[in-house]
Amino acid sequence: MRKFYITSPIYYVNAPPHLGHVYTNVVADVLARYHRLKGYDVFFLTGTDEHGAKVARSAHKAGKEPKAFVDELAAQFQEAARTFHISYTDFIRTSDQGKHWPGAQKLWKQLDDAQDLYKASYKGLYCVGHEAFVTDKDLKNGRCLEHDIEPEVIEEENYFFRLSKYVSKIKEAILADTLNIKPPARRNEVLAMLEGGVEDVSFSRPSKDIPWGIPVPGDDTQTMYVWCDALSNYISALGYGRTNDENFRKYWPCDVHVIGKDILRFHAVIWPGMLLSAGLPFPKSIFIHGHILSGGKKMSKTLGNVIDPFQLQQEYGTDAVRNFVISEIPSFEDGDITIERFREIYTARFSNGIGNLVSRIATMIERFFNGEIKKPDQALLDNLPLKITDAACHVLGEEKTEESFYSSVQAIIHTEERKYHQALEDFNLNRAAQSAWLLLRHCDWYIQEYQPFKLVKEDKNKGEAVLWNAATLLLAGAWFLRPMIPETAEKIFEIFNVGSGGELLSWNEITGKSIQPLFPRLDLDT
C-alpha cells in the first residue's frame, strides 16, 4: 500500500480548544479520510504542545501545577477530536517523557553533532503570547500586533541554531518544489522571508526561568526552546529516538503538514533548516490555510463575536459544523462565520437540501416501486438528458452560457468527479465540496424538471429511470461528501442499501423507505 503521512499542528494548551483548532483538524481529517478511501496506508498525527512560559504562567494563574494543568487541557483537545470525528492515528503530547522526549533529545544531538548549535548572549523583545522573540516590525506602538501586549526585554545566554547556514538550500528546495508550499501566495511569502535575510534563532532558555520543558542534553542549566521541543513531534511520534522506530522509517517524510498561516515561518523556514542539519528529508508539502473570522473580525471576547464550536455542534450536529468550515471557508484565505450565516447554510444544505432529497427519493421508491428500483437499460437512461435550461440555471445558481448543454447524468457526474479529485490533490477542499453540492442541486432540479411522482403514473418504466437518475445524483453527491461529512454520507448509503458507497456508480439496485428527516428544520423564531 502507498503510505500517506499527514499532520495537524500540535495545539498550545494555555486555553481550551476553539473554532480555529476544530477547523485545522477537520481540514487534515478530510485529507486523511480521502486518502484512506483511495486505498492509502494513512498515518494521521495531531496532539498538544504543552511546554513553555505561557503554559507555566497560565497554570500558576489557575492555581495548578503545570502537569495537572496540561493534563486537563490535553483531555479537552482529545475530546474535541472525538466530538468532531477526527480520525487521527496518534495523539502526541510534548510532556510525554517516554514517547516524545527521546525524539526531541536525539534531534538536538544531531544538530549539535553537525556543529549547528552554539552558545551566545542575546538581548531581545520576547512576546509571551507568541512564545517567541519578536522585532520592532512585529509591533505597533510598542505592542504585539497579534496579542496587543508589550513584549518583555530579555537578556540571557542561550543556545542558538545556525539557521542562516541553510537559507540557500531551503530556497533551492522551495523553487524546485522539493519542498512544496501551497498556496502559491504563501510560497512567495516564504521566499520573501528568505530573500530578506534570516538570522540564527534562539534555541533554548535558562532552566531557572523556564523549568517547565525538556532539559537540553548535557546542560541542565538550559531548557529546550519551542523549535526543538515542539517541531520534533512530527518525527518523535513515529518513534524517532526510540528503540522501535519502524513507523519513522515507514512514514517519514511527511506527505503534508497542515498549518495555519500564523505558524508559516516556523514550518517553512526553521523546521526545514533543522531537518537539513540533522540529515533528514523535507516534508513533501506544507498546506497553509487562512483564519476564520467572525463578522469580518478576529474572534475576541471583548468584541463579543466568539463562536463556540461545541455549542454549534450540540445545536446542529457535528457534520453541520464540518460542512461549514470546509465548504464555506476558502481553503487558502481567511473566511467568515456568523451565526446567521451558519443557520442559513444549515437550512439550505441540510434541512431543505440533502435531508429533503433523501426523504423525497426514499419515499417515492417505497411508494411507487415497493421499496426497490433496479438500474434501467442504458438506452432509456441516455434518453433522459440533463437539460440546462433557464430554470435549471436558476436552481443551480449558475449563469446560462453558450456552453449550456444536454448531457447524461453519468456524464455530469464524471465531469465533477475529475474536478473533485483534482481539487483534493491540490488541497482545495472548498472546491471539492462545491462538486458535491452541485450534484445535489442537479438532483433537486432534475426532480423538478421530470416530476417522477407524476411521470410514474403515465409511464412506469420511464418514471423508474428518472427516479434512478435522481437517486444516482444524490448518491454520487454523498460519495463525494464521504471525507467531509462522514456520518451523514454513511446514513445515506445505509438508507439506500448501497453498502459503504463502494466505487462511484457501482450500484445496480437501490432500496428506499420513508424515514424521519435526517436534519430537523429550524424554528425561525429563535
UniProtKB/TrEMBL annotation:
Gene Ontology terms for molecular function: ATP binding; methionine-tRNA ligase activity
Domain Aminoacyl-tRNA synthetase class Ia intervals: 3-94
Biological role stated in the UniProt entry: Is required not only for elongation of protein synthesis but also for the initiation of all mRNA translation through initiator tRNA(fMet) aminoacylation.
Organism per entry: Candidatus Ryanbacteria bacterium RIFCSPHIGHO2_01_45_13
Name of the protein in question: Methionine--tRNA ligase
Any GO BP annotation: methionyl-tRNA aminoacylation
Xref: Gene3D superfamilies: 2.170.220.10, HUPs, Isoleucyl-tRNA Synthetase, Domain 1
Swiss-Prot/TrEMBL keywords: Aminoacyl-tRNA synthetase, ATP-binding, Ligase, Nucleotide-binding, Protein biosynthesis
Pfam families referenced in this protein's UniProt entry, alphabetically: Anticodon_3 (PF19303), tRNA-synt_1 (PF00133), tRNA-synt_1g (PF09334)
All copies of domain Methionyl/Leucyl tRNA synthetase, residue ranges: 136-361
EC number: 6.1.1.10
Origin superkingdom: Bacteria
Domain Methionyl-tRNA synthetase anticodon-binding: 411-498
Family: Belongs to the class-I aminoacyl-tRNA synthetase family.
NCBIfam families, alphabetized: metG
